[in-house]
Write a structure and sequence with these properties.
alpha/beta, Rossmann fold, 9 helices, 7 strands, 47% helix
């Protein structure tokens, strides 16, 4: 299938590792122009070199590195400006960021609630506000948030993440209906247990908390997944690329789970 995004410009937040990098690679493989963004500028440049080597021959492909701290509005403006200077106006915006620390809901303080919004809502809202007007003017755009299965079913001991990601989902669902007539789709892609460094950190924390081994935690976790395995980052990236594609123009306002059947609700 031709995804119709060759030459489109994609800004992928937090794409120097994990799921963000998987999505950036999938978009690059389709010939999109990709801005690799993260706090690790050196790593972002290394990834750009890797993508150039792998996909440099594809029509429309290009890549730039954007070193950015999105904790303030100035950082967002600077990041988008860098991406647009190197690649042109943003057609595809992939929202992503680091997950907050684990913790139980009963132990949350007011600073934890503030952190949920500071980490998981404010930067993404700022990126959307900066890029959406031009998408609407061109009458084509894709906004995709990398969320968590906690949006569909809150995850134990991840109260801050559950709170912030649910708030972001509510904002994006509302936005999707407002911009659909302008040719802009807004969706979420919810990972389950994907084999990333972040999931390893969570599994290690669970092993320490419960006084067991990492492999025991992984074995127990796999038993809860109908597919009986963790997902591969490339599988997640492929789903993301489709949601950002031209053929997906009638899919908006959805939270698609990529979780091997982990969440049992429809």
């Amino acid at each position: 299938m031709d995804l119709g995004i060759a030459g489109k410009t994609a800004l992928v937040a937090a794409s120097t590792g994990g799921l963000g990098l998987a999505v950036a690679r999938a978009l690059a493989a389709e010939g999109a122009k990709v801005a690799i963004m993260g706090r690790r500028g050196v790593r972002a440049k290394e990834i750009v070199d890797e993508l150039q080597e792998a996909f440099g021959g594809l029509p429309g492909f290009a890549a730039v590195a954007v070193e950015a701290d999105l904790t303030g509005a100035e950082g967002v403006d600077a990041a988008v400006a860098q991406a647009e200077a190197g690649l042109g106006p943003i057609d595809i915006l992939v929202l992503n960021g680091p997950g907050p620390r684990p913790g139980a809901a009963a132990t949350l303080g007011s600073e934890d609630i503030a952190a949920a919004f500071d980490l998981l809502v404010k930067p993404h809202h700022a990126l959307v506000s900066r890029t959406l007007p031009a998408m609407r003017e061109r009458r084509w755009g894709r906004i995709l948030a990398i969320g968590s299965s906690g949006v569909a079913a809150p995850l134990p001991n991840l109260a801050v993440s559950n709170t912030g990601r649910a708030a972001l989902a509510g904002y994006l669902k509302t936005l999707a209906a407002e911009v659909a007539l302008d040719g802009v789709t807004v969706n979420l892609l919810l990972p389950g247990r994907i084999a990333t460094d972040r999931v390893t950190e969570l599994d290690q924390a669970a092993a320490k908390r419960r006084g067991t081994t990492l492999e025991d935690i992984r074995l127990e976790s796999r038993k809860t997944i109908p597919a009986r395995r963790y997902g591969e980052p490339a599988e997640f990236g492929a789903a993301a690329a489709f949601l950002c594609s031209a053929p997906a123009s009638y899919i908006t306002g959805v939270a698609l789970r990529c979780d091997g059947g982990l969440i049992r609700s429809l």
